[in-house]
Design goal:
- 2 copies of one chain form a homodimer.
- By secondary structure, the first copy, chain A, is an alpha+beta fold.
- Chain A contains 16 helices and 18 strands.
- In chain A, the strands form 5 sheets. Chain A has a 5-stranded antiparallel β-sheet.
- In chain A, a hairpin with a 2-residue loop joins strand 17 and strand 18.
Chain lengths: 538, 538
Amino acid sequence: MTSAASARSRSFWAWGYEDKFPDDAARRALAEQVSAVLGVACMPRALPSFSNLRLPVPRVGAPASLAALASVDPRDRALHTYGRSYRDVVRAFRLDFATAPDLVLAPRTDDDVADALAWAEEEKVCIVPFGGGTSVVGGVECPLPSGFRGVASLDLTAMDRVLAVDAVSRAALVQAGATGPVLEEQLAAHGLTLRHFPQSFELSTVGGWIATRAGGHYATLLTHIDDFVESIRMVTPRGVWESRRLPASGAGPSPDRLALGSEGILGVITQAWLRVVPRPRFRASVSVYYATFAEGAEACRAIAQAGLYPSNCRLLDAREALLHGVPSDGKNVLLLAFESADHPLAPWMERALALATAHGGACSSPPVYADEGETARANETATSWRRAFFDAPYLQSALVTLGVLADTFETACTWDKFPALHKQVKRAVLDALGRECGGGVVTCRFTHVYPDGPAPYYTFVGAAREGHELEQWAAIKKAASDALSACGATITHHHAVGRTHRPWYDRERPDPFALALRAAKKAVDPMAVLNPGVLVDP
Amino acid sequence: MTSAASARSRSFWAWGYEDKFPDDAARRALAEQVSAVLGVACMPRALPSFSNLRLPVPRVGAPASLAALASVDPRDRALHTYGRSYRDVVRAFRLDFATAPDLVLAPRTDDDVADALAWAEEEKVCIVPFGGGTSVVGGVECPLPSGFRGVASLDLTAMDRVLAVDAVSRAALVQAGATGPVLEEQLAAHGLTLRHFPQSFELSTVGGWIATRAGGHYATLLTHIDDFVESIRMVTPRGVWESRRLPASGAGPSPDRLALGSEGILGVITQAWLRVVPRPRFRASVSVYYATFAEGAEACRAIAQAGLYPSNCRLLDAREALLHGVPSDGKNVLLLAFESADHPLAPWMERALALATAHGGACSSPPVYADEGETARANETATSWRRAFFDAPYLQSALVTLGVLADTFETACTWDKFPALHKQVKRAVLDALGRECGGGVVTCRFTHVYPDGPAPYYTFVGAAREGHELEQWAAIKKAASDALSACGATITHHHAVGRTHRPWYDRERPDPFALALRAAKKAVDPMAVLNPGVLVDP
């Protein structure tokens, strides 16, 4: 078997596909740029070679009944060892794969999943559900817990079909292993689209999005995958958890909302009905510039509270704009856009722009409107942004090879708390960068905005000291997370909890909710085989 | 002590306030109308007298430590025996209060709630959280379960204050016992409003709305109280469950979403931060008429899928219109409206109206636009509708006194399933009315519409046989609920589950979710004192 995830040339250590990884010339150019920014000479290091990789000997093997689904191929095991956080890429770059799963199982049906779970319970093997492997929070890395004999990665990507489309209700039944492009290609055949574009879109899967409450394309209103879910089918060790397909219900607490964000601890999501839409026919976009981030934030608040629901409303500080190749002339820039499959957008855009300029914003050019047949026309700034957005994770991996420590973290808070949070978080991270890296850069953007608050997203960059990257990173991450927690913000708006965010998650969630969630897990996963260590302790 | 709920003259047997109950002349006029519709002579019966009421002797009493919160006053106990379903009103009309709680506790603080729970655990007393007492699904009626010594109703209405307002983030911290009017009066002092107007608005409470996932004012987008909740504070027997105040989060499954719809089985909701808005400054409304309900439904689908988000988009069939005093000339009527505190609404209304007429709709007059200072101007149809909407529950109680069986039920389904569901549900209920009542009437409206489906709401009316009302009702309710279930619709879109909907809820929710929910309850309410019999068995 070759698991579906490895069928294309995924890098065994870096983000994404090998053929998209920056080549030597690009890495040298990047090194020059970053050296200039950090004031430290960054040099490209040699890339790791798969032939030098040594994996631990498997502790368990698949039984004959699961042999057809199983792989112990070293590349498969390596590809399923980590997500793609900074920590993960650093360790993989070092060829440290100490926590490699013993085997990879690639189910093709729900029965395969159930069989895998039954075997895991019997043989005391942990099961780690695995979609695109793009977790940046240690969601798929499972050190062997005591009482267990081994760890199996359960790769869902062979289950990637759109099984049914209901064009009347605008919904599609999708298998959980479909990646963004695989899903969109199948929906496009029906003239439909999900329009959920997380930064991991190229690799991440429907099941992963649901399990981690992924954030997506729309900056307002339908921000999380939660909002697109009509029903979920999840295979648990104690049977199939399948909700009825409904536009809404008031029948008790929502079963879907307990599966959403369950991060593989309650069951393996295998299918979902998702709400889809026709491709947009009308688009409107504009860039608005602000002298201060605070002014831009106030504009975002006004727009978010106006009931206009732009598809894009992303505020980038000047450095963030630079980082993403968005021309901003040293200013903060708000990317504002609307889209619709139903109606021209001038009244929406005009009102939003009036609010944007009323709060100190200025436009260098009027909004660009693209109607049907004109989709080629687009705001150039928005296009630069989009390209840079999807390339950013490749860049992060490349920076690791230059000895640069670069990572992101994100949160959400109410508007009243944002000014203090922004100040304290930036100070905490800059202080930590100073201590750990001798200095560095922090940038910020809003990825999503709500009537009651923004979701700020921070990027930090500093010089790494070879061999000490993980300690440096841990100190900075702790400083950032402590600051978020102290300000009453959430430890994650859409990156999930995994193993990395556990300490701050444990402070954030209500204690009785933790009791309830642990009990719920025990009820459906009594042997605790599913992704142990995530969200709750056994 | 007199509990807050009884401080105003609530009827001990009928819906709402005594002074709003239809007087004898109104009942005679109603009897004439209904007699004409049903073809059966309906006569007003004598109203029940409180002085004839005999309650069971209390099985337990409050300890000295809770004496200041406790009442065994017969009127208090009577007022806390039932909700206000047809079944409840019939039994109360008969002076059957066999399941009266032994006492009523009216906490003033979270500590009072915690004390009540601790006492209940120690003394084996069930606690039934009680807000407005408007449940129509047996949510607050608690027959003594085996192993318990008594039942206490926990009336939250003394905790009814707005504790804080954050005008920047547009949110308010509200105690759970605030009724709709009490809440809105306090918010109005800040120029703010929640705009959540369930039919029970006059009496029901914030905590009740959250515990039952109440549906409200907006016909699209923000349909349930769920959408207004920023955080919840709930006192459980194992500590305080309080979520962080956040506009959004991706940190594990949402604690709020497990509290929402928990119907008093996990804890007692005592406070919530709710998202509020300024009062609308702009309004637009119009009525559109359709020859068939199916045409109107297609128009609703088009509008719901267009991304316009009208505040009202309620389709009434001809009889439903008649019932609510909405002039429709025998046609189906769509009440379409927009509101905004930010912008004039012509572009929104024009596009929605274009969709409405493209699907066979006709207007007798153009949309009415009311801008700031013109709030007095309003679409007359919408005004009639609103008045009749809030009076309907009084009418239902009055009908009981005429020997008329009248009730409502509601659901939601995807658009593809609606035509078959509508046909089968109407047939099932008409057949049952024929068998049980010798005929009757069924009407339908959409209370809310979603991109992927409507929430149809049915009203049925037939002649009751004195002394057999409950059996007649049960047979009709079963026919309706079985039809909903067979069609894959939900047993409730916003009326909740309570004890009445349990059999159909048990078919609807995923089995492993029931295991999880039962375990969650056991973790936070190990003695099972909270509202036993609702949602899960111990």
